[in-house]
Amino acid sequence: MHADDATEVWYAIPSAAPDKAQETLPVWRRMGYRVAVLLDGDTPEVPADRTLRVPRYRGWSASVNELIERVVPPSAGIVVTGGDDMLPVPGQPAPALARQFADRFPGLDGVMQPCGDGFGGAGGFCGSPWIGRGFIERAYGGRGPLWPGYFHTHADVELHDVAERTGRLWMRPEIGQHHAHATRDAAAGGGGEVTPGGRADVRRDLELFLRRHLDHFPGSGLPAEGPAPPHRLESHWFRTIGLAGLGGGAFEDEALRLALGGLADRGVERVALCPAGRWLRRAASALADPPVEVVAVADDAAPAAAGRFLGYPRVRPEVLLDGLPGGPPGAVLLCTDTHTAKLHARLGFLAAAGVEVAPLPAAGGPEAAARTGSL
User: Fold this and answer.
1) CATH number for the domain including 270?
2) Does residue 116 contact residue 172 with C-beta atoms inside 8 Å?
3) One domain for residues 33 and 82
4) Which residues of 69-92 are buried (b: 16+ CB within 10 A; e: fewer)?
5) What is the pLDDT of residues 223-281, one digit of tens each?
6) Residue 350, Cα to own-chain centre: how many angstroms?
7) Which domain of life is it from (predicted)?
């Protein structure tokens, strides 16, 4: 695929809000885009050049991949995706932006994200990306540019990271594609559902992203050399997509962040968390960009075979001494607000071996924080 083929640009999305699509899709078409839409079940028809109706919705990333495979013509040099609530870059028709894309990626082997809209931490993921045909043909073995295991969230974060690691990402803060997200409408008094998809789906997508991130996004088909960089999904973005609805809590989040920061300030570089449980799950957003390397989650209930919790290896405490790549951690952080004395005693063998066993600051809750002055 050469730059001359980049003039045809398709906007390909699954439609979940046909009323919104009635407003937005004609704008894309007026700006020179062809439009392909996936409709599931009895979803009403929307303005589009081509539609694909399927019996069941399989998630955003799988739907986009299916549109590219079955509906968007192979001659299309660039595919843009997003949702019913996105608008194109104002003032620049699709052919003009396509020429800019081809100048940056002559083989169309790249991803461009207009991020000037700034909504929801837009600079850290590709929620409305321009994806070149060359990238589509190479990524994930040519089976589609998005990892299909995600249902609603985090496929756009993985796309960002895979493209960035391979030098094929062009983030453009000087232009934007307005995202009329429900949370933005709600903030303006428009109401609307805040959390996209089901809460269980969001939690599952988050855990899948953490796991795949730590494993260098297996199956991406693009070489990613060197250590995995820390994921840049900021905690405010987690909250935007409804972290509170995942069972998260502001105190747990802040307590874990303070504890990890304190260890980093004292020069501890590698940390294990203990135990795997509800408290740690509620504090998950503090692990979005930790200041230390989290090497494992230790738990007496860890399975004999390799397992994971929030994307990290889940192991029995004894494994921390001699069973981790890179050796023992510098510290084990107690991530619980119950039975801490008993857990500290259980991990005494680690302290005897020189591994710090560190409690959370004010792990008992806001009242305890006030008593100890930790927060």
Assistant:
1) 3.40.50.720
2) yes
3) yes
4) eebbeeebbbbbbbbbbbbbbeee
5) 555 445 544 444 434 443 434 344 445 567 778 888 998 899 899 999 999 999 888 88
6) 34
7) Bacteria
